[in-house]
Amino acid sequence: MLEYYFPNEAAEPLLWHPVLFAYTLLVSGADLLILVALAYLAGSLRRAIPLMTMLGIGFFTVVLAGPLADLRSPHRASLIFTQPHIVSTAANPGISLIALQSIAWLIALILSILFALLTFSYYSHQVFQASTGFRKTFYRVFSLGVNTSEKYRSVEKVAKIVAVLMLPFLTLWGIYPSSLLIMQTWNPAWRSWSLLPVTYFADTFVVATALFMLVYFFWRSRSLEREVVVPVLKIHAAGSLSVAALTGLQMAVWWFWSPSTAEMVAPLIPMMYAVIAFLLLSFSLSLVSIRYPVMILAVSLVAITGTFTNKWNIIINAQLISKTGLAFLEVELKGLWLLDTVAPIALGVAVFIVLSTLFPLEVRESGE
Amino acid sequence: MLDMMADTSRRQFLTTVSAALISLTPAVMATGSEKPTKRYAMFIDVDKCYGCMACVIACAAENNVPLGSFRTWIEHLVKPDGVNIFIPKQCNHCDEPPCVPPCPTGATYKTADGLVLVNDELCIGCGACIKGCPYGARFINPVKGVADKCTFCDHRLAAGLLPACVEACPTGARVFGPLNEDNELSRTVRSRPVQVLKPHTGAEPQIYYNSLPDEVNR
């Protein structure tokens, strides 16, 4: 019988609050931008790129609002940028992934905005010509001097270079914070969740495409276009199946190769079953939706429920497993935790709405 | 003539600068690989601890530790044969501290004496170091909003005193000192079979135990 083990855990069982859980959902903004960059370079999904760009930038802009709300001394948050621990020294050995990701966020955000400005430059010029007053000035600035389709073709080449530059920084975000959970923490569940980065990467594509379909459904109502929906559905189906398979594989790895770990993570297993069920259902519905696009609402809602369940299990439930591996700590969520959690997501949606009033969510032809 | 003077002075200038750079190089390099003057460590004799909690209370009083959190604590193990074992635990002031790399602002750092400390002015209270510590030795100080942990009572060391927990221990179960000097600590660690907690983490902890049961090594 053992008593008094790790009492500091008992004092504050949930160190990273549900705000961080919401934050992991906002990471899907990075995945949308990865999709945008890849699609732009491949010359595919052209009709979907503007909506994805705006949604991606909307979510990615506010991605740090989650952890900011979780800091105990938020007034010193700017130190992450002014004194980042990204060089190993005798006094500060190692490199902080949090600092590295914060800088990657800044670079990726600047590049994403530059990419959006470049790709919307000719559109801005067209709106500038048809506008008056403040709108005219606004769109004149955003046209970046691109006033002919020939100039726009040159700008497209620059946009492709920017898309290539965006990719490594956004990919870093695609596997974050799973890389942080595995590499720089000693939570036994996270440390032994060997498939977490790849699961996380696939999972954020699921939520990214689900968000896209949800917004697209309500925006286009009943005039859903197959050429926009079907490619996104295919990515979504592949992502859903991957996450379901990887979650099942992780459970099998624990059961067959590490029974002691399987025993320790037992409180996480019921939700893992739920994640597999939700994502397999989302996968099946995706296949049906390819024939009946109106079904994308169901695909989206089921997938978002599945990814919410998955993120809650990974961030909140796994955090409650004691570092000793001997206990599953219980916690009572207090105060306005739900409001705190929803606020960063709402902020992302707000940024998206503002952007959608300024820029088009769909293109008919190149640059228009 | 003027050209020659200018050439000479340029040569002198270059020579002086080169000499200065060469003489500076070892100093700059030494800063990066500075040898610790001391290497503070602790030995805890589990056989001598009877769980009186004097160290826990002395630490809390000395360091104003908030209620519910602990810079040091004592684990109590009852073996199947009824034997009671008490194991004092705290920050291990590791040689390869897993809590230092995750800190995004460098607030958590290692001193030349081997102490792992927190700079309250730089800590943003993100909790990354707490998650990074395998020993559960860190916590968020709810009053200050920063990470908190054992400092080996560095303020007492500066005054030539022992850490409060060591001074309070009635049985002398805790032995403290610089490991790289000839003293009771270094002699004990060298002469007795000692263990550390969670050696598999690679943290190279600097709290040495004897008679440590496997059950607590989690």
Low-confidence stretches of chain B: 1-6, 20-33
Which percent range fits the helix content of chain B? 25-40%
Quote the beta fraction of chain A: under 5%
The count of strands of chain B amounts to: 9
Catalogue the unreliable spans of chain A: none
- Main beta sheet of chain B: 3 strands, mixed
Rg over CA atoms of chain A: 22 Å
Which two chains share the most extensive interface? A-B, 48 and 52 residues
Estimate the global geometry of chain A from the Cα principal axes: globular
Note the main attributes of this structure.
heterodimer; A: 368 residues; mainly alpha; 2 domains; 18 helices; B: 218 residues; alpha+beta; Alpha-Beta Plaits; three-stranded mixed β-sheet; two-stranded antiparallel sheet; 6 helices; globular; disordered N terminus
Give a written overview of the molecule.
The complex is a heterodimer of chains A (368) and B (218). By secondary structure, chain A is mainly alpha-helical. Chain A has 18 helices and 1 strand. The longest helix of chain A has 32 residues, at 226-257. The termini of chain A are far apart. The mean pLDDT of chain A is 90. Chain B is an alpha+beta fold and 218 residues long. Helices cover 29% and strands 19% of the residues of chain B. Chain B has helices at residues 2-32, 54-63, 128-132, 154-158, 164-168, 184-191, and strands at residues 40-45, 72-78, 84-90, 108-110, 116-118, 139-141, 146-148, 174-178, 207-210. Classes of the chains: A mainly alpha (368), B alpha+beta (218). At the A-B interface, strand 1, helix 1 and helix 7 of A face strand 2, strand 4 and helix 3 of B. Strand 1 of chain A pairs antiparallel with strand 2 of chain B, so a sheet runs across the interface.
